[in-house]
Design a protein that fits this description.
This is Small conserved membrane protein. InterPro entries: SWEET_rpt. It holds the Pfam family MtN3_slv. The structure is a single chain. The protein has one domain: Monooxygenase, CATH 1.20.1280. The termini are far apart. Helix 1 packs parallel to helix 4, helix 2 runs parallel beside helix 4 and helix 3 runs antiparallel to helix 4. It has four helices and no strands. The protein has about 90 residues and is mostly helical.
């Protein structure tokens, strides 16, 4: 496998894992709605981090769609989860 192909595969795997990491907030979101409130710090920090990555990908000279797509769920799910923790 060439270095370029390996790099491309690692990028794809990292993008999938990033989306899964943010989707994992759904369990905390459900607990929050059921009355078992969690700490909002981590989801809010994740939302800020994801927002920065989306901004970076969007403002790059050539839009970096894998970074945007991998982090967009983190903006939404981090904010929603953090808000429901309050």
């Amino acid at each position: 496998m060439t270095h370029s192909k390996l790099n491309q595969n690692i990028g794809r795997i990292a993008s999938v894992i990033s989306v899964l990491m943010y989707v994992s907030y759904l369990a905390q979101f459900a607990s929050n709605l059921a009355g078992q409130k969690g700490n909002p710090v981590q989801p809010f920090v994740a939302a800020v981090n994801a927002s920065l990555w989306v901004t970076y990908g969007w403002t790059a000279p050539k839009k970096d769609w894998p970074i945007i797509i991998a982090n967009a769920p983190g903006v939404v799910l981090g904010l929603v989860t953090g808000i429901t923790c309050l």
